Amino acid sequence: MPAARESLLDAAYQALARRPWSAVRMVDVAAAAGVSRQTLYNEFGSKDGLARALVRREADGYLAGVDRALAGPSDPRDRLAATAEWMMSAAHQNALIRAMLTGSWSERLPAPAAVPSTATAPAQRRADGPLPSPGDFVALVRDRAVAVLYGADPLAPPDTAELARSCELAVRLALSCVAAPPAGGGVADLVRAALPARPRA
Question: SS3 for the chain, per residue?
């Protein structure tokens, strides 16, 4: 992403942390990023375009965090537990991620709808496209986990259907904990307890 675009998205995110999206002004976002308002409009087209790009960036950051968690420990259960912990942490710290994962958009947040893009910049055309639904996020994380864990157990032939069920269970447990945080041990303990001792990879 060009530096100006990233600075504008950072400024928009910081503004959203302080006030509802309806009260975020484009001129303030531009000033915080150190660029002109015209640069902001050239980059995103409108406040809705800025909102879509901001939400898309947060979704990409969330999925990058999932990839980092899956690359962690060698034991498949520990990888899925780490992924569930990341999902909980990301949703707890970032209201946009929480809204994307649950589909519950508060009035404070932008809830950008996909629109046909007339943007010339590839990044904005992508941001203008449809955002994954909560169900799409489940499938994205499940499929990433299956892809990473598929070759993790060289001793046993993989049963991808069983592995996919284990991965989806871990993802859905984490999402349920986003909505109703667990007491005590947390989501990692729930995932470890719910999965077989060695989810077959």
Answer: CCHHHHHHHHHHHHHHHHCCHHHCCHHHHHHHHCCCHHHHHHHHCCHHHHHHHHHHHHHHHHHHHHHHHHCCCCCHHHHHHHHHHHHHHHHHHCHHHHHHHHCCCCCCCCCCCCCCCCCCCHHHHHHHCCCCCHHHHHHHHHHHHHHHHCCCCCCCCCCHHHHHHHHHHHHHHHHHHHHCCCCCCCHHHHHHHHCCCCCCC
